[in-house]
Amino acid sequence: MSISRDIWLITNEGSGSVREELLADLHEACERSSLCIAERTTFPSEEIPSPAELDQRGIDTVVTLGGDGTINAVVAALAGWGGAVLPLPGGTQNLLPKRVHGEAGVHEVIEAFARGNARRVRPQIIRSSKGIALAGLLVGPGTSWNEVREALRAADAGAMLTAAGAAIQNTAGQPPVRIRQPDAGAPEGYPIVELMPHAGGIEIAAYHARTGADFVAQTWALLRQEFREGPHDTLGPFQETTLASTGAQPLDLLLDGEPAHGDATETFALDKCPVDLIATLAQED
User: Fold this and answer.
1) Could you tell me the domains of the chain?
2) Per-residue confidence at 218, pLDDT binned at 50, 70, 90?
3) Where are the alpha helices (DSSP H) in the chain?
4) Banded model confidence at residue 222, pLDDT cuts 50, 70, 90
5) How far apart are CA 110 and CA 102, in angstroms?
6) Which pLDDT value is given to residue 212?
């Protein structure tokens, strides 16, 4: 008979794919793998457990089932902890789980972890004065498309149309963002800049709409939250980069999909994840 291992589960039932059916599948996978959900936290209505609380309960593994923003909040709260976080794909894009698990689903990840086919890693992340980004961040007036995403998540057609109209106006009418250091990209700036951490540095995708066709393509890509399909310049990798508003206005940020208010100039640096993550991929990027 296998020995049961206690885990602390943190879920966000507001995330894109976290539904009762998926939670039931997770419970079934844990039972088959001799993993015991000793404690469960529903974020954000309940507080993330502290490192001291986890240590007191003798739990060395926190499992997250939510989106990239949920994982970000858990990692930030557990910075410096001696245990590890196992992020499961439970959101809309699941960019961080894909970094450490590839396209594997909840069942495959849990089974690999239980069999010992997993390892602790400290992947590269991006650190800023406003927080960390584990999978990536967006900067610029185009981040207003996040409101469209939230309306889609809530299945509110009226709010989605209103948010889409405001997002188009902000993207086209607000001061763009330029890459100040190192001096790279278009001097006139971009409506939205994406930063992605990799082992070799920060890669930048700077999205533009220089022609009418570009604007249509970019609007369609933003509407579907498929930013990388829009016309863009690829820059980097850089160990550190400074972005600035061309209008000296505060920068709008999305850190792992969660909004934050930046200063008119913000510096973003490559750093190590502040707590161990559990990866089932043989090698992360």
Assistant:
1) 5-123+274-279 (3.40.50.10330), 132-272 (2.60.200.40)
2) low
3) 20-32, 51-56, 68-77, 95-101, 106-115, 146-153, 157-173, 212-223
4) low
5) 14
6) 47
